[in-house]
Amino acid sequence: MALPAVAFAPLVQLLAQTEEPAVDGNDTIPQTKAMAARIKALVEPAMLVWARKTASLTQEEAALALEVPLDRLQAWEKEGNDETPTVNQLKRMSERYKRPLSVFYLPAPPNDFQPLRDFRRLPGTVDHRFSAQLAYEVRAAYERRQIAIEVTQTLDQEPVLFGITARQTDDPEQVGRRIRERLGVSVEQQGRWRDPNNAFRGWREAIEQAGVLVFVLSGAHHKIELEEMRGFAIAEQPLPSIVINGRDRSPGRTFTLMHELAHVVLGQSAIENELEPGDAIPAPERRIETFCNSVAAAVLMPAAALLDHPMVVAKYRANAAWSDEEIAAVARRFGVSRLALLVRLATLGRLTQAYVQAKRREYDRQREEDASDEKQAGGFAPYQYQVLGHLGRGFTRLVLQGYNNNRLTLSVTSGYLGVQAKWVPTIERAAFGAPA
After folding, report:
1. 93 and 156 in one domain?
2. 3-class DSSP state for residue 332?
3. Which domain-ending residue is among 86, 105, 124?
4. Which residues contact 158 (CB under 8 A, 6 or more apart)?
5. Arithmetic mean of pLDDT, 192-214
6. How high does pLDDT run on average in the chain?
7. Is 364 exposed, middle or buried (0-12, 13-18, 19+ CB in 10 A)?
8. How many other C-beta atoms can be found within 10 angstroms of the C-beta atom of residue 17?
9. DSSP secondary structure code for residue 325 in this structure
10. Is residue 211 part of a domain?
11. Range of the domain at 318
12. Is it true that the peptide bond before 85 is cis, omega within 30 degrees of 0?
């Protein structure tokens, strides 16, 4: 993301500080390195505090990561204190806090993104502070959204607007119908996806084409536990963004995707780790989560299509019990989990809440999401498809369009995609559908 011009002015000072002196006959490389290690970085304490806190690190955690005594770090962050880190120590901060080195030389902390409304409910804990990795992923999502906006402007284009808004007082069925119409996905098309992975990819592509960026955290470098984060939404316009935890199974990812899209429609940036609103959370939050779940269910399982399904009709008329195979078959038809299907049927009056709760407990014992419904294939996808899976085709194609139109250099393009420059042609072929 482009930094304010003021961010680059102090770089002259930085270069002056780090420039090595001419070497005469008495100078040695070890002496030069030792002198560089003692050069003080001319940074404001407030910037050090801001960078640490936005990395979601306590002073104790930061001191440990930087391998410095706690009292020294505290002295660096104290206003009016003459103690400052060296340039080498500041470089280490840049790495540990995941911030560009130039940002530390700003005169004051920039206006950061608006905080996400925290719907996470970690059992047995009250501390919902982000882990350092999650704090980084939230920040990265905001920065990618800003990159997308800037590339769109560079291309002299108007960003695609999703255009659907709602209030909590609206009928979730009507909101779900409007969203589905905006996405342009028919029930027949949805039925052809069959496999849960295909269903997630199909919905994701439709959402990206409608003007919403979708990122998926997966792989060793983007690992967040489901217990901490299942998904979050950045509802700012234009180009709102959704981030999904790839550690979830495909039916769960698809429902989370729609749930977060409902947050976007509400205009509410939020983060959560469970989609079932528990009684422990405050009533206002519980109502919001219930609304978003209802909208997601209405999008994925339109009432008319679900109630007309032959299995649903037959079971209702005969007042017959469902087998697990029958539940799974209908769930696959709509690309949702078994539990999501049963909850939807109960909402539509085709099952009792008692039955659903009993099946919920049964599925919990079976560890549904980790086992029986879906076995993900082993191994790893080729690198270019890992990048696409993380960034999405919408964001990737936009950046590559900037490159192909000579508005972005190869270096900037590879930086925006987070890859080495040599991978750009391969990723381009994959992003636009040509053989890799």
Report:
1. no
2. helix
3. 105
4. 152
5. 95
6. 85
7. exposed
8. 16
9. H
10. yes
11. 304-370
12. no
Residue 104 has pLDDT above 80, yes or no: yes
Q: Where are the beta strands (DSSP E) in 36-189?
A: 117-118
The tokens of 295 are what?
A: 């909208």
Whether 348 and 386 map to the same domain: the answer is no
The CA distances from residue 22 to 26, 29, 85, 92, 337, in Å, are: 11, 11, 25, 26, 68
Gap between the Cα atoms of 43 and 110, Å rounded: 14
Arithmetic mean of pLDDT, 15-24: 39
Sign of CA dihedral 124, 129, 131, 133: positive
Indicate whether 62 and 169 sit together in one domain.
no
SS3 of residue 214 by DSSP: strand
Q: Which residues pair with 234 in a beta bridge?
A: 241
Residue at 429: amino acid letter: R
403, part of any domain? yes
386 shares a domain with 257: no
Give residue-wise pLDDT tens across range 205-247.
Answer: 999 999 999 999 987 788 899 888 999 999 999 999 999 999 8
3-state helix, strand, coil in the chain (%, to 5): 60, 5, 35
Domain boundary among 299, 319, 334: 299
Residue with tokens 């935890």: 245
Q: What is the percentage of the chain residues whose pLDDT exceeds 70?
A: 85
Q: What is the pLDDT of residue 231?
A: 95
- Examine residue 376 and state whether it is found in any structural domain, yes or no: no
Residue recorded with tokens 């994701």: 204
Does some domain include residue 228?
A: yes
Same structural domain for residues 171 and 196? yes
Residues 60 and 79 in one domain: yes
Amino acid at 93: M
Counting the structural domains of the chain, the total is 4
Q: What is the SS3 assignment for 171?
A: coil
Residue 381 per-residue DSSP state:
-
Q: Is the pLDDT at 20 greater than 80, yes or no?
A: no
Chain centroid, CA 234 distance in Å: 9
Contact call for residues 221 and 208 (beta carbons, < 8 A): no
DSSP structural state of residue 247? T
Q: What pTM did the predictor assign?
A: 0.81
**Residue 33 maps to which CATH number?**
1.10.260.40
Q: How far apart are CA 282 and CA 269, in angstroms?
A: 18
Alpha-carbon gap, residue 150 to 165, rounded angstroms: 24
Q: Is the dihedral of CA 57, 61, 63, 65 positive or negative?
A: negative
